[in-house]
Protein 1
Amino acid sequence: GENVEQHPSTLSVQEGDSAVIKCTYSDSASNYFPWYKQELGKRPQLIIDIRSNVGEKKDQRIAVTLNKTAKHFSLHITETQPEDSAVYFCAASTSGGSNYKLTFGKGTLLTVNP
Amino acid sequence: NAGVTQTPKFRILKIGQSMTLQCAQDMNHNYMYWYRQDPGMGLKLIYYSVGAGITDKGEVPNGYNVSRSTTEDFPLRLELAAPSQTSVYFCASSDRGKSNQPQHFGDGTRLSIL
């Protein structure tokens, strides 16, 4: 099955700096890559996603890049703010037929220091 | 729309007891999922369903059962609670489309087994 590796496990940045979180996946058939943000004690919430027919996608301060050849994708957060502090999870779909299952990475704890 | 609703929010069980975690969604989504999240870890898929009457095992199904009698509801059953099942349980749902659709999560059920 699919295996998703996520690095780093913790990341501390100063407010205003950029943060980059990287993930690799094993199944070359994966075609959907969402990123979720989870604040302490809360539900995971989708912040951005990318499909395999696109190399990059941006939404304000957040961007995701995908390299299908190398089987890795990254989350970029620019001009970080304290409210960006949370655990971020990447995921990859192991779509088979009509079954869209996600395999998650173990998460990155991002701390933005004021 | 309430989205995905999980009950209860918290529960303490004794070893060997049984209980049902409830999940309901009002978005008319075909796909529903149950995950568990252990401290400091990512989300692991327990069971999923692609429609009423259809369920399938995920990565960690042992010790759990599910049913899907309606589109809206997807309860998770623990028959003989064990300490290893202490975790936070998240239910999620997604729409059915030509390609992967985002998964929407409930607030979670925090379960402790003592």
Note: The CA atoms of residues 29 and 96 of chain A lie 9 Å apart.
Protein 2
Amino acid sequence: DAKTTQPPSMDCAEGRAANLPCNHSTISGNEYVYWYRQIHSQGPQYIIHGLKNNETNEMASLIITEDRKSSTLILPHATLRDTAVYYCIVRVALRWTGTASKLTFGTGTRLQVTL
Amino acid sequence: ETGVTQSPTHLIKTRGQQVTLRCSSQSGHNTVSWYQQALGQGPQFIFQYYREEENGRGNFPPRFSGLQFPNYSSELNVNALELDDSALYLCASSSGQNSNEKLFFGSGTQLSVL
């Protein structure tokens, strides 16, 4: 029941910006967009999240369109260690609880950073 | 390092057996979620515990059950194991159940059912 669509794979040259797109056209007004990455069957690593506004932290920037139907994760200077599967996730409320929610993962984008 | 620890790291069981997986949440976190990740797939939500109560569940049968203890650590129990239960089981903790709270994942337990 993933609510996101991502390209299955992307390549990026080391030192260049990696721009990972994500479509979430059915997102609801109070649902957050989260990005995680996973390196070779380790636990997913939190990158960034946002609701409406663009966000930036030490790892990445998140650009969310005004209609909230899509977003882009930007890694400003990709390194070989950024090679991973990147998941764009909509955090969905659990209906029978007041505030509980879950992360709905899709199959992600496999980013390969090359020399 | 996220401060979320899971044990054991690997486990091999046979069909029909029962298994218990353990998770210690990050200090100060009162919410724990469990996810199942089959090979080549994204993690799928199993259930969530908040202050020792289950407050959300995904599409998993009742033979998947859990506990959260007063120190907010957690267990995942799976009865009557099936071959399709072979997967990486991930625990994640957060400081609350608000949608704005980040989840921090452990490294997982790789379960193989033969």
Note: Chain B has a mean pLDDT of 94.
